[in-house]
Amino acid sequence: VKAVHEFQNDPHCSLFLISLKAGGVGLNLTAADYVFILDPWWNPAAEMQALNRAHRIGQEKNVFVYRFISIDSIEEKIQRLQVRKRELAETFVTANNPLKSLSENELLELFS
């Protein structure tokens, strides 16, 4: 709590390091305008929740998000999986009958 308060209020404190999981729970980090993701999560919703700690009501600046992804790495595979999960979730939310368009494997992948 002390570190968050210092980051939010001290103009000389310009860097705040936090893991995505810790950054996704109950924090308000509107002093941040740059977010660097070094460890992507399998669940894109967990990553978005952490990003929203900087991009929320009270944020007065544009928020820039950078993802560090190495070619042929596990992070690249996680990113592809995140994209696929988002596409499946979008299909599930917007289609008239989404279950018709999803295979059993796609449903298992989405909810695993």
Keywords:
6 helices, 112 residues, 47% helix, two-stranded parallel ribbon, elongated, mainly alpha, 7% strand
Overview of the structural elements:
- The protein is elongated.
- It starts with a helix and ends with a helix.
- With 112 residues, the chain is mainly α.
- Helix 3 links the parallel strand 1 and strand 2.
- The protein contains 6 helices and 2 strands.
- Helices cover 47% and strands 7% of the residues.
- It folds into 2 domains: 68 residues, no CATH class; 42 residues.
- It has a two-stranded parallel sheet with strand order 1-2.
Q: In total, how many beta strands?
A: 2
Uncertain runs are none
- Summing up helix and strand content along with how strands pair, one would put the structural category as mainly alpha
The order of strands across the largest sheet is: 1-2
Task: Supply the number of helical segments.
Answer: 6
Overall average residue pLDDT: 84
| Major sheet size, sense and barrel closure | 2 strands, parallel
What fraction strand? 5-15%
Provide the gyration radius in Å: 17 Å
Helical percentage: 40-55%
Distance from N terminus to C terminus (CA atoms, Å) equals 33 Å
Assembly state of the chains shown: single chain
User: How many separate structural domains?
Assistant: 2
- What order do the SSEs take from the amino end to the carboxyl end, as H and E? HHEHEHHH
So what's the overall shape? elongated
